[in-house]
Structures are given as C-alpha cells and as structure tokens.
C-alpha cells in the first residue's frame, strides 16, 4: 500500500471530492486539508506526512491494547488463513462460538446468552426488540391478559446510537430532534448530572432525589414499560456525565421491583474503560440485557453483541410454528474475523493483566488532572477510569457555559492537535479516553498537552463566531 499510496495532496483532494464525513459540517471541512492517518502503533497514530500523534480518544473510544498489537494482528492473519466470513444464519463458526463462551464467562453473573450484530447501534436495536418480544412471549400471567409492555424509559442527554430505535431512546436534541417524526415515543427522565443538577440539589445531601421521579414513573406506568435503557456509570456522549455511586444499583432495584427490564448500554464503558471489565461490575449489577461493541474487538473491527439472561432467552423457545423465534440478523453477524480478534483481545486482557495496569493508570491520571481542575475556565473534571471529560465554562462561579458558537471544545482540540494529541470534544467538554496500554509517561504528556491547549484557548481574547457544532 505504501508504495502505491497517492501523495497527501492528491488524497486530500479526493477526500474533499468523494467523502462525506460523519458528524461533520462538510462546508467547513473542505476549507482545510484533512489530517489523514496512515498507520499506528501502541497509543500513537501517524499521518501520511509521517507526523506522529498520541491517540487521546482511542480512535473514537474503540482502541484498547494499542494499535498493531502483535497478538491481535496475528489472530487476524491466522483467521484469514481459514475464512474471512461465513454466516451465523443456519451455520456456525469456531470464533463466534468461542467468543460467546468467553463473553459469558467474563460478563456480570446471570448473562448467559450472546446475540451478535455489527456495531453499538445494532447491539442496542437488538436489545430493544428482544425486550418487546420478551414481554409478548413471557409465560402469561394469570388475570393480566396480553402484555402491553412496549414502552422504554431513557435518560435525557443519553446517546445509544444513530439507527432509528437507538435514536428513539436517545436524548441529545441536537442529534435526535429533527428525526422525532420517525422515532417511537420514549419516556425521558432527568439524568444524574450533578454539576448541573436539574433539581438544584447537591450530592450527597440530595440522597439521589433524582431517582424519585424515576420510581414515580415506573410505579405509575410499569404495565406499559418494557425496559429502561441506561449507560451505566457514565453518560459518555452527553459530555462524560458520571453517575454518583449507588445510582446504578438503585436503578437495578427499581427495575426489579416494577418488573421492567434493565438494558445496560456498555458500548462505550465496556472492556476496561472504567477500570473494571464492565461498568456494571463496579456495583455488582446484572442487567437483563447488555449491549457491547467498540472495545469488543480491541478496536480492530466492527462487531456488536447483546447479552441476555437465561430467563430472557427461554421466552423465545417453542416449536417452529409457535413463531417465537427472534427474527433478526445481519449479513455479517458473528463475522469470524471480528470474533477471532475479539477473542485475542480478551486473551491479552488476561495475559497482560490489563485491568491491573489500568488501576495504576487511573490513579496517575487523577493526580495529573488535579492542576487542570484548578484552571479558571474549567468547571468540572469528571473521570471514570480512562473516561475523562473536562467541562469548560465561561464563568466558574456561576457555571455559565460558553455559547455553542464560541466552539471552545473544538478549538481546544485543534490546539491539542498542533501539540500532537488527537482528541474530539463533546460541545464544551474536552474528552480524554486513552487506549488502556498508554504508559504513565504518555498519560502525563496527554494531560499536559490538554492543559496547555485549554489555557491557550480560554485565555485568548474573545471567540470567533463560528456555527454551532456537535460531535460524538
Ligand atoms: N451506545 C453508546 C453508549 C455509544 O457511545 C455509542 C457510540 N458512540 C453507541 C451506542 C453507538 O455505537 P456505534 O457507533 O458503534 O453504532
């Protein structure tokens, strides 16, 4: 590839002529030459001009063990010698079988069945459809008649993907509002955004009063609610909003009490990102359904998985003509290449004791971030393991946010890029989500660069009035 690679200038020209980039205002995009990444190793990526950058957002939250990990590369090569793809519809394949077994082994106790799909959005779609069908097929309850449970509860500001079902349970107006006519109605509750508490309270004195309206809703309408969808511990795309300790387990209790399925979207939080294998592990919570993707393959290939309890699974059993089958499946479901590299990734977790290393890194990051939290325009630094959000504010005392048109997050990421760190903001929230193999020295460098970039942007006089811009 290297030998035949067109020049950077030619590639830039073709990029501007043929590509339509996701979550990107293309009118603006084509005014600058694109940064074109050609290769990578460990926590670094390298552009077509040979410039090396620290990958501060793990190539959009997916990379786990670094780029070009030898064990993951080898697993892919070995699988390629067997077969690149075969279907799970009516057939099976060794990597999908072995990966399902491994996922059940490491998942929260009680999740026993694995349904593969393609990415985070489809893993969520599968969970939503399973939940609705489950209630239709669950053993009939005496005197209750057919189930009316088909509604969902979600948290405001949540993000579960860009497909129609996943958007329906999403709560980011900028992304979802214009599609409302296409989406099914879902019941929204306030998120535990303590820095900007919707109830005007403060933690822990509040005793998590934000859960009272959740309980009230479940109590009143549980007969029509199939499930509650949540990103455990950390609403990532919302701006790295961390839930207070105990919030998730209270949600679990409420779901159990009111017979509502708990659907955990661990697409972003899964695979060590929060310091444990899954965010649910922090509070020993077993959801009824769990959506996985991103880090599942170590960040190598797209693959999604929805894990279900045995109780869920059994509701789909019956004779063929009972039509209890889960009629859902994508062409690439259980793709052997993706499953083989995912298996290798889980093996690396064990062999390299990745989670132990992460625990040390988390403590180091916390130390490095302390001076950042004291910067005059940093409202709050939120950290859950290797997921970090730095919320920038115009006024620290009043917590007044910067106007979206000031695009401070975007400008900080441009400054960071000049200093050779790649990051991507969420509005006014600067994001850091390094690969789990990043060394302590590299973590320190990443935070140092962010600090300089934040200072440069927030100390600059005024902000150019550019169009509002959202990014995931
Ligand atoms: N759920 C969460 C929590 C996510 O963060 C994302 C992606 N950022 C998704 C679902 C959707 O995943 P994908 O982009 O792979 O469809």
List keywords for this structure.
single chain; 472 residues; alpha/beta; seven-stranded mixed sheet; four-stranded mixed sheet; 15 helices; 17 strands; 35% helix; 16% strand; globular; disordered C terminus; binds 4'-deoxy-4'-aminopyridoxal-5'-phosphate
Q: How are the strands of the largest sheet arranged?
A: 4-12-11-10-7-5-6
Distance between the termini: 30 Å
Q: Can you give the mean pLDDT?
A: 95
Low-confidence stretches: 463-472
Q: Count the beta strands.
A: 17
Instruction: Determine the structural class based on helices, strands and strand pairing.
Output: alpha/beta
Percent of residues in beta strands: 15-25%
Helix content: 25-40%
From the alpha-carbon coordinates, what is the Rg to the nearest angstrom? 22 Å
Question: What does this 3D model show about the protein?
Answer:
It is a single chain. With 472 residues, the chain is of the alpha/beta class. It is 35% helix and 16% strand. The chain has helices at 8-18, 26-29, 58-61, 70-82, 94-106, 120-137, 164-168, 173-176, 211-221, 247-257, 310-314, 336-351, 354-373, 408-418, 440-459, and strands at residues 37-41, 44-47, 52-55, 111-117, 151-155, 187-189, 225-230, 234-235, 241-242, 261-265, 289-292, 304-309, 378-384, 387-395, 400-401, 421-422, 429-432. It has a seven-stranded mixed beta sheet with strand order 4-12-11-10-7-5-6, sandwiched between helices. The chain has a four-stranded mixed beta sheet with strand order 1-2-3-16. Strand 2 and strand 3 form a beta hairpin. Helix 4 runs antiparallel to helix 12 and helix 14 packs across helix 15 (440-459). It is globular and about 70 Å long. Mean pLDDT is 95; it is low at 463-472. The structure holds 4'-deoxy-4'-aminopyridoxal-5'-phosphate. The site of 4'-deoxy-4'-aminopyridoxal-5'-phosphate (PMP) has 15 residues, from helix 6.
């Amino acid at each position: 590839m290297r030998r035949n690679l067109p020049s950077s200038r030619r590639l830039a020209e073709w990029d501007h002529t043929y590509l339509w980039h996701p979550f990107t205002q293309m009118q603006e995009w084509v005014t600058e030459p694109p940064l074109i990444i050609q290769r990578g190793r460990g926590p670094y990526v390298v552009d077509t001009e040979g410039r090396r950058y620290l990958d501060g957002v793990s190539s959009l939250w997916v990379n786990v063990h670094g780029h070009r990990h030898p064990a993951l590369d080898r697993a892919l090569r070995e699988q390629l010698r067997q077969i690149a793809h075969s279907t799970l519809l009516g057939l099976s394949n060794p990597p999908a079988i072995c990966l399902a077994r491994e996922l059940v082994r490491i998942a929260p106790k009680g999740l026993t069945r694995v349904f593969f799909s393609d990415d985070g959005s489809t893993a969520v779609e599968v969970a939503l459809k399973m939940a609705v069908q489950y209630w239709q097929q669950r053993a009939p309850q005496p005197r209750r008649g057919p189930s009316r449970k088909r509604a969902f509860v979600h948290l405001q500001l949540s993000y579960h993907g860009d497909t129609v079902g996943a958007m329906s349970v999403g709560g980011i107006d900028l992304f979802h509002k214009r599609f409302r006519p296409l989406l099914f109605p879902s019941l929204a509750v306030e998120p535990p955004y303590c820095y900007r508490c919707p109830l005007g309270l403060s933690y822990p004195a509040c005793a998590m009063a934000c859960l009272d309206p959740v309980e009230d809703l479940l109590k009143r309408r549980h007969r029509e609610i199939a499930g509650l969808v949540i990103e455990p511990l950390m609403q990532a795309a919302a701006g790295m909003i961390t839930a207070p300790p105990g919030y998730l387990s209270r949600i679990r209790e409420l779901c159990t009490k009111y017979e509502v399925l708990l659907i955990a979207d661990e697409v972003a939080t899964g695979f060590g990102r929060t310091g444990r294998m899954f965010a649910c592990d922090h509070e020993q919570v077993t959801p009824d359904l769990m959506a996985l993707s991103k880090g599942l393959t170590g960040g190598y290939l797209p693959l999604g998985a929805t894990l279900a309890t045995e109780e869920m699974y059994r509701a789909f059993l019956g004779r063929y003509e009972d039509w209890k089958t889960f009629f859902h499946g994508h062409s690439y479901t259980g793709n052997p290449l993706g499953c083989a590299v995912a298996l290798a990734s889980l093996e690396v977790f064990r062999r390299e004791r990745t989670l132990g290393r992460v625990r040390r890194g988390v403590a180091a990051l916390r130390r490095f971030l302390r001076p950042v939290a004291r910067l005059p325009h940093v409202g709050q630094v939120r950290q859950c393991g290797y997921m970090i959000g730095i919320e920038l504010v115009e006024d620290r005392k009043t917590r007044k946010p910067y106007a979206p048109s000031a695009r401070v997050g975007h400008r900080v990421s441009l400054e960071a890029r000049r200093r050779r760190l790649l990051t991507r903001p969420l509005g006014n929230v600067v994001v850091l989500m390094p690969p789990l193999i990043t060394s302590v020295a590299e973590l320190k460098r990443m935070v140092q660069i962010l600090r300089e970039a934040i200072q440069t942007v927030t100390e600059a006089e005024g902000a150019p009035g550019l169009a509002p811009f959202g990014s995931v």
